[in-house]
Amino acid sequence: MKEWLRSIPAVHELQNHEQFEALLRENHLDVTQLTKQLKEAVDQIRVLLLNGEWDGATPGTNQFIDEVFQLLKINLKKQYSYTLEKVINATGTILHTNLGRARLSDNAIQHVVETAQNYSNLEYKLNEGERGSRHSHVEALLKEITGAEAVMVVNNNAAAVYLVLRALAENKEVIVSRGQLVEIGGSFRISSIMEESGAKLIEIGTTNKTHLYDYEKALNSETAIIMKVHTSNFKVIGFTKSVETEDLIQLTNHSEDVIFYEDLGSGALFDFRRHGIGEEPVVKEVIELGADLVTFSGDKLLGGPQAGIIAGKKKIIDRLKKHQLARVVRVDKMTLAALEGTLIDYARGEMGVKNIPTIRDLLVSIDELDARSKRFVTNLLQGTDDFQTKIFPGTSQVGGGTMPDVGLPSMVISLRHHTLTAEQVGRKLRTHFKPAIIGRIQKDEFIIDLRTVTEEEEQLLLQSLIQL
Fold it and tell me: What element of type H or E holds 194?
């Protein structure tokens, strides 16, 4: 063992090796950084030798030196590879939270790239030649689409809720139904956000039933907000009762200095109900009913980047824009560019909206999915005979804590490999291929739903399965 350890070449000797010079050129590293990585590789091998776990070449041989540099190459690849990477989502869940939720449209992506690569008029008025506001870039579009008097954008919807409560109800009372005290992703609760904001939560009604008289009884001189939370991530069915938005708006109209605020969560700017998909309220409808404020997400049903959007009465939005927290939760230029690129398509109407991947994937017909699935299976069987396949009716999910009771009829592909289990197929597709492929496993079958796979990705998926 001592002889082996003494036979490990010194780092300065390895630095003079031609493989060291080659790695410098290939990885565009300076000598100091590559030397540091080389020392770490040598130390790894030394530890393996001391623990009796080294199964490579004998130290001191040319083959051993090759293995040192091979380990160094592996370490460099790990060190300088992105951990955030593209994956193919073949699960059929459109707003898959673990896989990044909404995909951006081509317009949004191009606008982000242009904005990121160049200087921009983020906070500059070109006509006047003076400082401007970053809020202005998307406010006009959102006002047109939602019908609101004013709009501001923050970094996510939880931040929007927090800012509203902190700025408008600190040390004052906010009335909310017990049936709407929802928990969103990552164990964040509306009640906890309220508590952190300094607002006093006044719970009324019961889990399944809340009446208008519950709100009327709770109203007093300390009430700042009547809050309604759209339960976008769950449904209560059976013996239930809730108060309609119109009735709560009328109630606040008769109560001086009380704001009606609705957290819509999912942010539907498009009416999916016209296509028989869910019952999600459209933001514009709630604004038109007379809501003082609404908040919603940018990366759910809206189909844009992560953002929280606050829309409503101008005098209230102006107060929020001037609050000290507005700077804490403000968005950067790339988020604004992605949001503006997405909203431009909404402003173009029905044809433009179909450029948004979230909406396009929600609306794709079962006939189209059936045809694509048949074509895919035919091409797969021409490339390999390792799979037993079938196509059958299935269900896609909206995902992202949105439309929990909505299943989208789909046609899915079932794959059974002749020698590998479904778990093994899934693991290999995740770990052995770039981009990684994520599907579903059901009754020891690997399930593919092409609803969330683009035509370009379809070819990559096909090639990976053939290579498997």
Answer: helix 190-197
131 dihedral zone (left: phi>0; alpha: psi -120 to 50; beta): beta
Alpha helices of 356-454 — where are they, by DSSP H? 357-363, 366-383, 422-431
Interatomic CA distance for residues 398 and 405, integer angstroms: 9
| HSE-up (13 A, CA, CB side) for residue 436 | 12
Give the tens place of pLDDT for each residue, 319-348.
999 999 999 999 999 999 999 999 999 999
Predicted confidence (pLDDT) per residue in 282-308, tens digit: 999 999 999 999 999 999 999 999 999
Residues of the chain whose pLDDT is less than 50? none
Buried-state track 372-406, b at ≥16 Cβ within 10 A, e below 16: bbeebbeebeeeeebbebebeebebbbbbbbbeeb
- Sign, CA dihedral 190-193-195-201, equals negative
Give the pTM.
0.88
Residue 426 and residue 432: Cα distance in Å, rounded? 10
Q: Tokens standing for 170?
A: 């600190």
Task: Give φ, ψ of 464 to 5 degrees.
Answer: -65, -40
Q: Residue 441: what pLDDT?
A: 96
- The letter for the amino acid at 392 is F
Assess contact for 301 and 272: CB atoms under 8 A.
Answer: yes
Contact 84, 333 (CB under 8 A): no
pLDDT at position 90, please? Answer: 98
> Which residue in 96, 90, 154 sits closest to 439, CA to CA?
90
